[in-house]
TrEMBL record:
InterPro entries, alphabetized: Mitotic_Regulator, Sel1-like, TPR-like_helical_dom_sf
Leader sequence residues: 1-21
Name of a matching Pfam family: Sel1
Record's keyword annotation contains Signal: yes
Keyword vocabulary terms for this entry: Signal
Domain of life: Bacteria
Listed name of the protein: Sel1 repeat family protein
Length: 178
């Protein structure tokens, strides 16, 4: 559903930009102008918050440098949770940027501590809880992991509830071992 929504928003935005491309003197559409207005790079310095979605699209289509700049700017300007998660995932995978588990987890923590009215902070709480449980980019802390995972599960993140079940199973195995 989220991918469909993002795709729909991006397509509607792109359609509007093409429809409003200024025609040159002969009345024909100025394709070169429309292309430059539609490039991901044109959103790097944009003052419009919609650009944060373009960071995701830029990353998924391989323009990682533009994605990083867009995400960084959205985080700086609006403390945008969606952008924190996107950039954290880039640091986690090392695609388009140097892999850095600590930076990835720090961004997830920052996003997890926010509440912007969307479901993205809940998703960040889940990812931060998993990082704590596995010691990914941060010292392993099962009790703290459980706290974040419970919060995410209470907010409807099914994966968080499943991961808590996984931790309970591991806990049970540890107690049963001789």
């Amino acid at each position: 559903m989220r991918k469909f929504l993002i795709s729909t928003v991006c397509c509607a935005t792109l359609h509007g930009a093409v429809a409003h491309a200024r025609p040159p003197g002969n009345g024909a559409p100025d394709i070169k102008s429309a292309e430059s207005e539609l490039s991901y790079r044109s959103y790097i310095t944009s003052n419009k918050r919609i650009k944060c979605l373009y960071g995701y699209a830029a990353n998924k289509t391989g323009d990682h440098a533009a994605a990083i700049q867009i995400f960084d700017d959205c985080i700086r300007r609006w403390n945008d949770v969606f952008s924190m998660i996107g950039l954290a995932q880039m640091y986690e995978t090392g695609i388009g940027i140097r892999q850095d588990a600590a930076q990835s987890t720090a961004l997830m923590r920052r996003a997890a501590q926010l509440d912007d009215g969307s479901s993205y902070p809940s998703l960040a709480r889940y990812h931060f809880g998993v990082a704590l449980a596995e010691g990914y980019g941060i010292e392993k802390n099962i009790a703290e992991a459980r706290r974040w995972l419970h919060k995410a599960a209470d907010e409807g993140v099914n994966e968080a509830a499943a991961y808590l079940d996984h931790l309970d199973h591991l806990d049970h195995q540890d107690r049963a071992a001789p």
